[in-house]
Amino acid sequence: MTTPRNKRREAFLLGNEAVVEGALAAGCSFYAGYPITPSTEIMECMAKRLPHVPDGVFIQMEDEIASMGAIIGGSLAGRKVMTATSGPGFSLMQEQIGYAAMTETPLVLVNVMRGGASTGLPTSPGQGDVQQARWGAHGDHPIIVLSATDVPECVEMAVTAFNFAEKYRTPVILLLDEITAHTREKISLPEPGDFEIVSRLTPTMPPEWYKPFEETMRGVPPMPPIGSGYRFHVTGLTHDAQGFPTSRPEEVRALTERQFRKIDRFFEDIQLVEHVETADAEVVVIAYGCVARSARLAVRQAREAGVRAGLLVLKTLYPFPRRHVEPLLRSTRLAVVPELNMGQLSREVKRVNEGHTTVRTINRIDGQIITPSQILKEIA
User: Fold this and answer.
1) Whole-model pTM?
2) Strand 309-314 and strand 273-276: pairing?
3) Strand ranges (E), 252-357
């Protein structure tokens, strides 16, 4: 039964702590990780909370590579799993992200972005991992990348990340930035029934009929826990419907095309955005993460000054929500894309713009935030 709104539990949480609340609400029962600023609070909270969850398991691993290996194993065993990292740790995880994509293993990876390359600016914000989140692992494979703007949204997007991972049998990356992760806000804690919770499909056919990578009507093959009686061969090599390595061109093509198709056909479900005053906008700001908060105020101030400005907040970064961005580029005279990098998502905006409007970027890479006044200056 849902708790009445006037009796709901409230808390004053960091964005990182809110991610944990969302993960637990989604049913996460296994976390393996290695601490790194500015994501460490996620690991610390999981260490405290998971031992009190039925069958909950928390493990501190020796590094980020081992963390990814552990959660892949946990997921294959039937658990909903998560790890979190930042900067250098995210780079170390790339090979395992590709393995999870190839083996279609559901998992959630939270990357709290910080400034700079290499060890960079560990306690300062940045959004320089956007392209890496999509393209960091080698080879052709689809992946889902989400973003959260504020603390309540950290809960919502953590739940969404688990639901997408389970529904589409794929790794999902949730990108935060240091500001979102370390901002503390009052939120209502999630109660049972607040969110739809999705769990992966498991096979219903006899074990001898089961093929773990077979094309299905829904596009996503069911996935049993290893050890439940279904034979399940797992390899990072290109494989056939049974999971065994193959180099036969027709089977290689069928596997790759099916992996893309299971995401492509559900763009409407996966591509999440928020429209703010875009219906009559002549200028649109396209933003994500903490920058979207500055953009929201800038748009409001622009409206008060008589400029018909609007904001498109991207909650899904990949697959890039072109069907939401493209109509705005065709109906406005100016699009402004502020980012805490040298222009990573603005490249996607320019790619789909095809010369229809003017695209103006605001880029900051000095470990400081983009302020509302900076955005307002470009709008007005």
Assistant:
1) 0.96
2) antiparallel
3) 273-276, 283-287, 309-314, 316-318, 334-339
